[in-house]
Amino acid sequence: MLVHEHYLDLTHIPEVHPEETPPGLEQLPPLDHVSVSETSVTYTRTLPPAELADWEAEATGLPRDREYKRRHHGTFISPAILAEGWEIDGGDGQLYEQARIHAVTPESPTRTHLFSRFAHNFALDRALVGQHLHAVMAKVMQEDVAVIEAIEATAGYQGSASGIHLIADAGVLQVRRIVARMLATETGRTSAELDRVPPLRV
């Protein structure tokens, strides 16, 4: 759950990944929309226009002397799968899209395997672009792992389940409710965690 919640709340990006954050984006806006089904949560976030980060400029080849709109979106498909995407509007009708699929496989209560796959829809004939994006995403994931392991070593997941809930937690809280219901159904008991998670109030 720590892995899922880390990727569901990307407000950590400017702090954890400053080199990969577009210039001028000191904080990320709240989610535009959260859609909930019985077992999944889909969310979108539109970012304000900003210049390209170095890795974006190198990958897309877009001019650096202007600002670009971006959108982040994702879906918690199940406790085993999370999909997310990052889009840059090139301003010429083309969306430069990147997608990541995370397969989350617990080994024990405190150890989890994370298998990820990355894809993009531009410069498909240029191997160097794919290699560049792979190197960038590998660095980002190493930083993500360090943060998640630090949380696990200090507070653990139970520590993250309490406290004050903010607008940034909108997707996270819905996922917690879904997982709590799944656990309750599996065990035949009412989930105490589900009862503890209050509705998000804006």
What is this entry, summarized?
With 202 residues, the protein is an alpha+beta fold. It has seven helices and six strands. The protein has a single domain, classed as Naphthalene 1,2-dioxygenase Alpha Subunit, Chain A, domain 1, CATH 3.90.380.
CATH H-level superfamily? Naphthalene 1,2-dioxygenase Alpha Subunit, Chain A, domain 1
Q: What is the helix fraction of residues, given as a range?
A: 25-40%
| Gap between N and C termini | 24 Å
How much β-strand is present in the residues? 25-35%
From the 3D structure, determine the CATH topology: Naphthalene 1,2-dioxygenase Alpha Subunit, Chain A, domain 1
How can the largest sheet be summarized?
6 strands, antiparallel
**Alpha carbon gyration radius:** 18 Å
How would you describe the overall organization of this protein?
The protein has helices spanning 2-8, 13-16, 54-60, 127-154, 156-160, 170-187, 192-196, and strands spanning 33-36, 41-50, 68-78, 81-89, 95-108, 111-120. The protein is of the alpha+beta class and 202 residues long. The protein has a single domain (2-161), classed as Naphthalene 1,2-dioxygenase Alpha Subunit, Chain A, domain 1 (Alpha-Beta Complex). The chain has a six-stranded antiparallel sheet, with helices on one face. Helix 3 (54-60) runs antiparallel to helix 4. It is globular and about 55 Å long. The protein starts with a helix and ends in a 6-residue tail after the last helix. The relative contact order is 0.16. Residues 198-202 have low confidence and may be disordered.
